[in-house]
Structure formats: structure tokens, C-alpha cells
Design goal:
It is a single chain. The protein is globular and about 70 Å long. The protein is mostly helical. It has 24 helices and no strands.
Length: about 550
């Protein structure tokens, strides 16, 4: 198994690992809800045209949102699990849970069964979304760490797009539904299986890949029992770094203390010292990590919180919800077509973040895109508040025509002005909408997964990243539940509220977020222990 692990210890395998985790996250966890939601309402008799519409709305909301609750629990439980059992086993367990529950979800013929299996799918996907980025961050070289972790977000959007495209194809291919209620349920059950069962191969592949890959080099020293065993293992790792991979097969290698250390060896020795200093945090991640975040790592924890707010509370889920209405303004009537186009744009723009995160840096990319997001969604709110003023009444009287020799009718001029205003409003809405999505996917959606795995000290990185992951799931749930009440109360001004939150986050991150590009984890840890304000310390203007 050791030789097989060495074979799979390559940067390409790390990319594959994060790609599979991202596809599971995007397709199975998020993407399924959109196309399957309509089928579930038929299959489980919760369509809104039935009696007890209010109850049906809450039942439909529960079956689609339960996966979010499961993912939050999986993220919280993932940190202590991967600290105790290791990154490999944590990934494999999460993938196995997701695969088994996804099969059950595909065959669920009752509402209760679907809710239970979607909850377990969320736990499995939440665990893999916690373990995979931590593993990749610990195994990647400093210069490629950002790109390797950014792949995770790219594949999330790819999974969402592919799922919606498959759902659109299944709905088109299925043809006419049966007239009877029984035939409609049979069609819905068939569509549910076609959409959900095939991607089960993704968590199965991830489970197999996790088992054949080597364990994280950051976790192995922590799992050693006893000081002698711990130090011997550390020296063996240092020696292999110093002499090269070929030395691992020698029978009795000797460590030459006079030989200059390779840069990676020096980094490893610093890791070992840091791990020794924070042994209590490693052994008791659940109750000790929270205390350490408040006292010793306060700056990192607050930056992580603002990253969560920038990711979720700036309105991304509300914009996704608003998308069908936006596309209907330009004549695209089918909601499924609008959703597919949205997910395509969402996927394409994510590639910009992958290419830029290791080129211009995390800080610059995050600040530039967050500012564009805040301006765009504020503009979307301003345009939305003027929507009613520009729309012609549906039952307006016939407008008299004007002959070429007579002056234009005032009513005709008024209609022309209103239609021109509607055209301008539609163009502005689409522009703000597209710009917001592009900025979000290039910046916060991509940079979040990189930064939360870099800003914490190696001794608490996995536990702290798990808390951030759970926080972002909580933020997603908050926006999803509060958007419609806020929209009814504030109308278009709800988007202005999200813009204000974005501006506040931008100011804080401008002052306090350090650059982590091409820095070792130890350098980043020292940076996080320095003064809060980063402007003026180094020549980084933003």
C-alpha cells in the first residue's frame, strides 16, 4: 500500500480529489434541489395547487433545505473526526455516507424517506467539503496551494450546471405526463431516479481515491503516540525530505546534521515545533479550539467570520432566487431554461478566480471583487425599486394612432417613453446581475475556501476551517429563509441591504486581511499574530 500511496502522491491527484469533492457538493448537494423540487411536489402530493397550500410550501421547503442542515452538521463533526482518524479516513467516510444516502434518495417513494436520505447526503457531503480542502491545503506546495483549493469551487459550479442541464434534458425527454394521478407519480419517480442515481459514482470514486492516497504529512506526527515514537517519525520525515524520495527504501539511513537543510525540510521542522507547542489544542479540538480562537487566534477568527459574511450574507442566494424573474424580462419564459443559462454563466466565471488567485493574490482579488459585488447588488436594488414606475398597466385602454400629418398623440408618446424606460431598466438589471455573479464567483466563492484553510495556525486549521464551513452553511440558511419576508417588506431595497453588508465587509478586509499568496503556513501564522492593520506595514495599497 505504501508504494501505491507514493504513486498517487502527485499534484494531479490532489486536483482530482478536490474535483470529485466539488462535483459531489455541486451536483448531489446543491444542484439536485432545483430540477427535482418540482418532481418531489408531485411524487409526495405537496404541489401548491393542492389543498393546504401553506402546509405544502413548508413541506417543499423542508425537503429541499434539510440537506443544508445536514451539511452544516457534517462540517462541524468533520473537524474532530479528521483530527482523530486522519484526513484519508474522514474523506472516505464522508464519501461512503453520501453514496449510500444518494442511492436511497433516488429510490425514495415516500416524503419521510426522502427527507431522511437528503439529510444524510448533507452530512456526507459536508464532511467531504471539510476534509478535502484541508487535505489538499496540507499536501500542496505553497505556490500551487491557492489554485488547488480554487478547483473545489470550480467543480461546485460545474456540478450545479451539469445537474440543471441533466434535469432540463430529462424533463424534455419525458414527454407528456399521464393524465391520472398515478401516472404522474410514476413519471416523477422515474425522473427522480434518472437525475439522482447516476452521480452516485462520484462519491464512490472519491472513497476509493482517498483510500489509496497517502495520509497528510501534517496529520501523521499528531497521531503518533509517545514522545520517542513522535520524534523518530519526525526525524524520518526530515531525513526523507533532505535525501530525496529514494532514501525511503534504504534499510538504515543516517541523518546528517551537517548537511544543509532543504527549504521544505526547514518548513517541516517549524511545523513540528508548532505542533508540539499546541498539543492541547490538537488533542481536544471541540472545546479547546473555540477558546483558542477567542484568545490566541482572535484576529484569524474575526477575519474568518467576515469572510463568511462576505460569502453568504451579501445576497448570493437571493440573486439566484431572483434569476428567473430577471430572465423573464427579456422574453425567456421557461424557468428551467433560465436556470440552466444562469448556472452556465456561474460556471464560466469561476475559471477567472482559479487563474487569478495565485497570480494577483488572495487579498487583491477578494477586495476588488467584493467591491464590484457590493456596487452591483446595490444597483440591482435601486433598479428594482423603480420597476413599478416603468411598467405599463396590463389593462390600459387602446392608444389612438397618429397620422403622418398630425402631431403624435400624448398617449403614444407616453407609451414610447415607458417602453424605452423598460428597455433601459432591463439592460441595467441584466448588467448588474451578470456583473454580480461574475464578481462573486471570481472572488469570495473562490478565495473563501483558500483563505480559511490558510489563516489559521496548522495546529487548529482543520477544526477552525470546519467551524467556518458550518458558519457559511448557517449564513446560507439564514438568507434562504429571510429573503422572501424581506422582499415583501422592503421590495427592491432588500438588495441595497445586502450591498451595505458588502461595503462593511470590504472596509474591514481592506484594513485587516493580509496577503497569503506564495507564503508558507508558518509565515501566514506569524502575519496573523502581528498588528491588526495591514495597510502601511508593507507596500500593499489594497
Amino acid at each position: 500500500m505504501g508504494d501505491l500511496s507514493d504513486t498517487f502522491n502527485t499534484p494531479h491527484t490532489l486536483v482530482l480529489l478536490n474535483s470529485l469533492a466539488g462535483l459531489i457538493f455541486g451536483y448531489i448537494l446543491i444542484g439536485v434541489n432545483s430540477p427535482a423540487g418540482n418532481w418531489w411536489s408531485i411524487l409526495y402530493n405537496t404541489a401548491n395547487d393542492n389543498d393546504n397550500t401553506d402546509d405544502n410550501v413548508w413541506q417543499n421547503a423542508a425537503v429541499t433545505s434539510i440537506v443544508t442542515i445536514g451539511a452544516g452538521i457534517g462540517a462541524v463533526c468533520g473537524a474532530p473526526l479528521i483530527n482523530r482518524l486522519g484526513r484519508k479516513k474522514g474523506i472516505a467516510i464522508g464519501a461512503a455516507f453520501a453514496a449510500a444516502a444518494n442511492i436511497g434518495s433516488g429510490f425514495s417513494y415516500t416524503y419521510a424517506a426522502q427527507v431522511i436520505f437528503r439529510f444524510v447526503v448533507g452530512i456526507g457531503a459536508g464532511l467531504t467539503s471539510q476534509a478535502c480542502p484541508v487535505y489538499v491545503q496540507e499536501m500542496s506546495d505553497d505556490q500551487y496551494r491557492g489554485s488547488h483549493n480554487a478547483v473545489f469551487q470550480v467543480m461546485i459550479t460545474a456540478g450545479i450546471f451539469v445537474c440543471n442541464l441533466v434535469g432540463y434534458y430529462i424533463a424534455e425527454e419525458d414527454g407528456q405526463r399521464g393524465v391520472s394521478h398515478h401516472e404522474r407519480k410514476a413519471h416523477a419517480f422515474s425522473q427522480n431516479m434518472q437525475l439522482i442515481l447516476p452521480p452516485t459514482v462520484l462519491p464512490l470514486l472519491l472513497c476509493v481515491l482517498a483510500l489509496v492516497m497517502p495520509e497528510s504529512r501534517k496529520w501523521v506526527p499528531r497521531s503518533a503516540r509517545g514522545a520517542n515514537n513522535y520524534n523518530n517519525m519526525n526525524m524520518n520525515m526530515v531525513q526523507q525530505q533532505q535525501q530525496g524520495p529514494s532514501s525511503s527504501s534504504s534499510s538504515s539511513p543516517n541523518f546528517d546534521e551537517t548537511q544543509p537543510l532543504h527549504p521544505k525540510t526547514h518548513t517541516l521542522l517549524v511545523d513540528i515545533n508548532n505542533d508540539d507547542d499546541d498539543e492541547e489544542t490538537q488533542n481536544h479540538p471541540l472545546h479547546t479550539t473555540c477558546g483558542a480562537l477567542v484568545s490566541k487566534y482572535r484576529k484569524a477568527s474575526i477575519i474568518g467570520l467576515f469572510m463568511v459574511v462576505s460569502l453568504q450574507l451579501t445576497g448570493i442566494n437571493s440573486v439566484m432566487f431572483y434569476a428567473p424573474a430577471v430572465f423573464s424580462l427579456v422574453g425567456l419564459k421557461k424557468q428551467q431554461e433560465a436556470t440552466v443559462l444562469l448556472m452556465l454563466w456561474n460556471f464560466v466565471t469561476t475559471f477567472m478566480g482559479v487563474f487569478l488567485v495565485d497570480k494577483i493574490g488572495r487579498r487583491k482579488l477578494m477586495l476588488a471583487t467584493l467591491l464590484i459585488m457590493s456596487i452591483s447588488i446595490t444597483g440591482l436594488g435601486i433598479v428594482g425599486k423603480t420597476e413599478k414606475a416603468f411598467v405599463l398597466p396590463p389593462s390600459s385602454p387602446a392608444i389612438p394612432s397618429s397620422s403622418p400629418s398630425s402631431p403624435p398623440s400624448p398617449l403614444l408618446l407616453g407609451e414610447t417613453a415607458v417602453r424605452s424606460a423598460n428597455t433601459v431598466q432591463t439592460g441595467l438589471t441584466l448588467a448588474f446581475f451578470a456583473l454580480y455573479i461574475a464578481a462573486f464567483e471570481t472572488g469570495p466563492a473562490c478565495v473563501f475556501w483558500v483563505i480559511i484553510n490558510e489563516i489559521y495556525a496548522p495546529s487548529i486549521a482543520s477544526s477552525a476551517a470546519g467551524l467556518c464551513n458550518a458558519e457559511q452553511w448557517t449564513g446560507a440558511l439564514v438568507v434562504t429563509l429571510t429573503f422572501l419576508p424581506l422582499k415583501r417588506a422592503l421590495d427592491g431595497a432588500v438588495f441595497i441591504l445586502y450591498g451595505v453588508i458588502g461595503f462593511v465587509c470590504w472596509v474591514f478586509l481592506l484594513l485587516c486581511l493580509p496577503e497569503t499568496k506564495a507564503k508558507s503556513l508558518q509565515e501566514i501564522t506569524r502575519e496573523m499574530n502581528a498588528k491588526w492593520i495591514v495597510i502601511g506595514r508593507k507596500p500593499q495599497w489594497w
